[in-house]
Design a protein that fits this description.
Layout: E1 4-8, H1 12-21, E2 26-30, E3 38-40, E4 43-45, H2 48-51, E5 56-59, H3 66-73, E6 82-85, H4 91-100, E7 106-112, E8 127-134, H5 138-147, E9 152-155, H6 158-182, H7 192-204, H8 209-217, H9 222-241
Parallel strand pairs: 1-2, 1-5, 2-4, 5-6, 6-7, 8-9
Antiparallel strand pairs: 3-4, 7-8
């Protein structure tokens, strides 16, 4: 693989992944909110125009900003680049990349199933989903992720991913947001099951509104799961009232 990559978007997750990738690559970063030329060891700020000249380009931006970004770069991007997204949903960003990027550009969809909070002790042994969209570098990227980053790789189509994530991620984050608003607190009398509930709260309490809304609104299967879960809870509550 190339020894230089670019990352467009340097929010919480962009910063997080750059730390690990900087051990293997020289990282060039573009973000509207960064003005420092040298950010950290092996990580450098540059312009959008310079970023899209690299052979490997990571889009570390929320899915709601993907289309606008692709429109900005579609005519100036390196026509032989590999573009990788890290969005927490897969159908929409992959459709947009296929629509706006030149056909010569290779595309791989990824969803790291962790973030700065859940991976605060390191990423080794954690999970990532890959979607092989187009091009010839998929196996090379998969091998690098497995051997160098030591992540467990799961290959899914965008639809398979989003359907599964509606249950695994959207429902979990929905419950976590409810626990946050409810104000659940630790107790010296806690049971094992309550401790598990606190674990969900402690991880998801720190998520941004941006991530939460992306997971809920941009996954086409999330609403159905939420409504089904809520209706079941209402039915359980009615059953209890009728006992």
């Amino acid at each position: 693989m190339q020894n230089e990559i670019s990352i467009i978007g340097f929010g919480n997750f962009g910063k997080f992944i750059s730390t690990y990738l900087s051990y293997f690559f020289k990282i060039y970063v573009y973000d509207n909110n960064i003005s420092d030329f040298h950010i950290d060891n092996n990580i450098f700020f540059t312009t959008l125009e310079e970023c899209v000249k690299k052979d490997i380009i990571i889009l570390a931006i929320p899915v709601q900003f993907i289309e606008n970004t692709l429109l900005k770069i579609q005519n100036i991007i390196n026509k032989n680049a590999l573009v990788i997204d890290v969005c927490s949903v897969k159908i929409k960003p992959i459709e947009l990349m296929k629509k706006y990027l030149p056909e010569t550009i290779e595309i791989i969809g990824t969803h790291p199933l962790f973030g700065p909070q859940s991976a605060k002790n390191g990423i080794e042994g954690l999970n990532i989903v890959l979607s092989d969209v187009r091009g010839t570098k998929f196996e090379c990227v998969k091998s690098f992720i497995e051997k160098n980053l030591k992540l467990n790789v799961y290959i899914k189509t965008p639809e398979e991913h989003d359907k599964e994530m509606a249950m695994v991620q959207a429902l979990t984050h929905f419950v976590g947001r409810g626990l946050t608003r409810f104000g659940v607190k630790d107790s010296i009398l806690k049971t094992k099951s309550f401790d598990c509930l606190l674990g969900v709260y402690n991880i998801l309490h720190y998520e941004t509104d941006e991530l939460f809304y992306t997971i809920q609104k941009e996954n086409p299967f999330a609403k159905e799961i939420r409504k089904k879960f809520l209706n079941i809870l209402i039915d359980i509550d009615k059953d209890l009232d009728n006992i």
